[in-house]
Specification:
Residues 1-21 form the signal peptide. This protein is mainly beta. The protein has helices at 3-10, 13-21, 119-122, 198-204, 209-215, 262-265; strands at 42-53, 61-73, 76-81, 84-88, 97-109, 130-142, 151-161, 169-180, 185-196, 227-240, 248-260, 274-285. It has six helices and twelve strands.
Length: 286
């Protein structure tokens, strides 16, 4: 599973507030006659618990604490997604229509840096922490299907390893659909795929003869090339308990599925080609 999508799942509540707050007035629900102030500065903090695979291709999952922060200051939106931080530096008008999205992104990749939960894979040794930096660009349409307030977004991100751990780039196109059902309820769906460079496959999926001797796994060099590593799907449901989705206390639940592809899925370190993640928690917007 891509680190971007895995952590986006766990921190997906951070994306609910800006998608709702860009609308000038949500359809239906209590207080629908009162416009929403989309220009005010705001911050959302979410905490909870999540479950995610121990590494890309693992058969075992781990339970982790969830912390996410999202905000808007002077029209510039920003958010954390687990070990990733990104921003949209192009302010929106808050009105139905098209909006360009663009900004920087920095991430810390921890795949195979902690216990893999598999004795043979553990004997291959830990992989260092990879610092990745790059950016993303997209286009968003507000007012699509259900109301003038739902959004459809097409975007793509590109990040390069700056730490020398895998030394390659990750390209991720995605499509997202978000809709506020009322002032207090929100649903989001997302599809994406990851294209990785040669060094990525060599680092995380290939096994050298020395690694084979140490682990008992077969030697493998089939992932030593650029290619599409996986596809990912995720969903989010958020519900406000006090106030509405732009302020107050709320609950969120996320679920997602990722599936490895081709030569990456055939690596001996892969125990499960398809992997699931989920999270539950509370968030507060002020």
């Amino acid at each position: 599973m891509s680190a971007r999508i895995r952590w986006a799942l766990i921190a997906a509540l951070a994306l609910a507030t800006p998608a709702f707050a860009q609308e000038s007035q949500p359809a239906g629900g209590a207080g629908a006659d009162t416009p929403v102030d989309t220009s005010r500065d705001r911050i959302t903090v979410g905490v909870g618990v999540g479950t995610t695979p121990r590494y890309s291709g693992a058969s075992r999952s781990m339970t982790i604490p969830v912390v996410a922060v999202q905000g808007q200051i002077s029209g510039i939106s920003f958010a954390t997604q687990g070990t990733s931080v990104f921003a949209d530096v192009i302010p929106g008008s808050g009105k139905p229509g098209w909006k360009l999205q663009f900004g920087p992104e920095v991430a810390l990749r921890l795949d195979r840096n902690t216990s893999p939960g598999d004795a043979a894979v553990a004997r291959l040794g830990k992989i260092g922490r990879a610092w990745e930096a790059g950016g993303w660009v997209g286009v968003q349409r507000t007012g699509v299907v259900t109301s003038p307030y739902d959004t459809l977004s097409l975007s793509a991100s590109w990040q390069k390893d700056l730490s020398g751990v895998h030394g390659s780039a990750i390209f991720t196109p995605s499509i997202d659909y978000d809709t506020p059902l009322s002032r207090r309820a929100y649903v989001s769906l997302s599809l994406s795929a990851d294209h990785v460079g040669r060094g990525f496959g060599d680092t995380y999926f290939d096994i050298t003869p020395a690694g084979s001797a140490a682990s008992g796994l077969a030697a493998y060099d089939g992932a030593d090339h650029p290619g599409w590593k996986d596809w990912n799907a995720s969903g989010l449901i958020a519900h406000s308990l006090t106030g509405d989705l732009t302020h107050g206390l709320g609950l969120f639940a996320t679920a997602g599925y990722s599936r490895l592809l081709g030569d990456y899925a055939r690596s001996p370190v892969v125990r499960e080609r398809g992997q699931a993640s989920a999270a539950l928690g509370v968030e507060f917007t002020f």
